[in-house]
Amino acid sequence: MGIIISILMGCLAGYLAGKIMKGGGFGFWINLLVGIVGGFLGGSVLGWFGIEWGGLFGSLVTAVIGAVILLWILSLFKK
């Protein structure tokens, strides 16, 4: 059950990051990938500042922050 929740959280995080970054989302698989990578990136970046959020909501916020950072970095290469 945990992997299913992780997949759904990754999709939701990628979708929300796409909306925050003025995109319309990139489809299920790309949103999943952006959300999963964003979760790792967000955990790392927030860890550098000593911030750790627990629970389902904290994991989602961390993944969204990481996904937004990832999309911002990708937009630098797109220009």
Description:
The protein has 79 residues and is an all-alpha fold. It has one domain. The chain is 81% helix and 0% strand. It is built from three helices and no strands. Helix 1 (2-20) crosses helix 2, helix 1 packs across helix 3 and helix 2 crosses helix 3. The protein is globular and about 35 Å long. The model has no long low-confidence stretch (mean pLDDT 83).
Summarize this structure briefly.
This protein is mostly helical and 79 residues long.
Which key terms come to mind for this protein?
79 residues; mainly alpha; 3 helices; globular
How would the global form be characterised? globular
Largest sheet: none
Overall average residue pLDDT: 83
Total strands: the figure is 0
Overall structural class, as computed from helix and strand content, comes to mainly alpha
What is the terminal-to-terminal distance?
40 Å
Oligomer: single chain
Classify the beta-strand content into a percent band: under 5%
The helix-strand sequence is HHH
**What ranges have pLDDT less than 50 throughout 5 or more consecutive residues?**
none
Calculate Rg over CA atoms.
12 Å
Number of domains: 1
Supply the number of helical segments: 3
Percent range for helical residues? over 70%
